[in-house]
Each structure stands twice: as structure tokens, then as C-alpha cells.
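Q: Sequence in, structure out?
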Amino acid sequence: MDNSSWTGVSHFILLGISTHPDEQIPLFLLFLLMYIINISGNFFIFALIVSAPHLHTPMYVFLSNLALTDISFTSTTVPKMLENIFSSTKTISYMGCLAQTYFFICFAAMENFLLAVMAYDRYIAICLPLRYPTILTRRLCIQMVVLCHVLSHLHALLHTLLMGQLIFCADNRIPHFFCDLYPLMKISCTSTRLNTLMIHTEGIIVINGALVIIIASYAFIISAVLQIPSANGRWKAFSTCGSHLTVVTIFYGTLTWIYFRPLSSYSVTKGRIVTVMYTVVTPMLNPFIYSLRNGDVKKAFSKWVKRL
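A: Exactly. Output:
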């Protein structure tokens, strides 16, 4: 395309999940319900941990941060999507789009790092139980959470700055419900080679680095648990990891399917559906996964109900 046909883009049009008029109200009600469940469920987990002194341990410090991250992660995309469903223009400003991209990447990376930290916590608790209080001190927990925040913002800043270097043509329609990396790169007039390279190098290092920590932690956990003589003891040890493993499987499975493939093979239709899984469904399910399979949380909830 000749340079003369390039135009400055002041805004983008978010086409959403579906363009069929008869599907708009059902989609609005569905995503509004999931958003309400997500916000209320994660806020409840956070409030419960803060209010229960016996939950002021490293594991629940990380879980409370995960709950806040899930609230922020979903709030980056869903409110704008709900607004656009009944909007005649369905627009988002250029700077608003970059801001949405930044915070989306930031909170996705934050969840990634927190899941790795939580796996390390389970490794220390099961493999080195006697040294747990001396290794995972309050100071170390705070340092790990701060590091997760710093790395997440640096990761998001890198990819957002690269996205800001792209030039967009007159066609400013994004076939998605938010400003995601691949849909934006698809409509760019300029080469996205550097963006793709960074996703497949720095992005893979960030995601796979955390995944390696998780896999290594669970390899040691499985090895330690298999040495427990009683079946009841083995089950009890594994049950403390079940909820975390469920979240890890859903989050990394969908994330890998979307981003770690060539841009040319990216399917917008399939990408929208899979993106919903880790941006909306997983954050909504996290409170239920961690509360229904966690004795400490259920005990804290019972005490809270009795005080009412």
C-alpha cells in the first residue's frame, strides 16, 4: 500500500463478539451476569482473607492479590464491551485503545506471575513444611508481590510502546470486543514483524518462565507426595494443589492457543471465543475453584456467617 493512502486514526470501531442484532441482548445479559459474579466473587474472597486472621499466611496473601487482579483484568474489557453492545458507533479512542491494551497485558502478566508464585508456595509447604515459616516470611511475600507488579508493568509497557509505533489505515474496524494485540496487528498498514518477534521471544520467556516454575514445583511436589505411606495423607497433600492446578490448566491452555502461533494462522472468530475463556470465564470461576475446594476458606466463611 502506498504511503499516500495511510491516514491518521483517531479512534477504532470494536465490532464485538457478534454483529447479529438478535444476539445482542442475550450477549449483554450473559456477560453482565458473568461480570457481576466475577466482581462479587473475587471481592468476597479478598474481603474474607482480609477479615480472617488465620488466613493471613503467604498462600492467602497471594490468593487475595489474584482476586484483585481478576477484578481488574475483567474490568479492563467487559464494561466497554457491554457499553458498545447498545452503542450505535461502538468506538474507542486511539489512546483509549492503547490504554486498554496496556492494562489488559499488565493484568494478564500479573495473573501469570502470581500463579507461578503460588506454585512455589505450595512446593515449600509440601516439600519443606518445617522451614515454611522461615523461608516464606512476610517480607519475602511482599517483595514477591511487588516484583510481580513491576515485571507485569514493564512487560505491558514494552508491547504497548511497540503497538504505538504501528500505522493504521482507513479501515479502523477491530473484529474483537477489545483492543487485543493480534486483531490490532491484523489491521495495521505497516510491518508487524518486530511486534510478532517480541511476542514470540519476550512473551514466551515471560509465560514459559512462569510455567517452568509451576511445572518444576509440581514435579517436586508429586515426588514428595508419592513418598507419603498412607493413601489418605497423599490425597490430603494433593487436595491442597487441586484448585491451583485447575486454574493453571485453563489459563495457560487458552493463552498458549491464542498467542504462541503465527499471526497468519490466527483466526479472529476462534480467537474471540477462546479469549472469552481466560479474560471472563476463568476470573469468574476462580473464587468458586478456590473456595469450594479449600477447607480454610470454607471455615472462615462459616465463622463469618455465624457472626451475622
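The CA atoms of residues 13 and 89 lie 7 Å apart.
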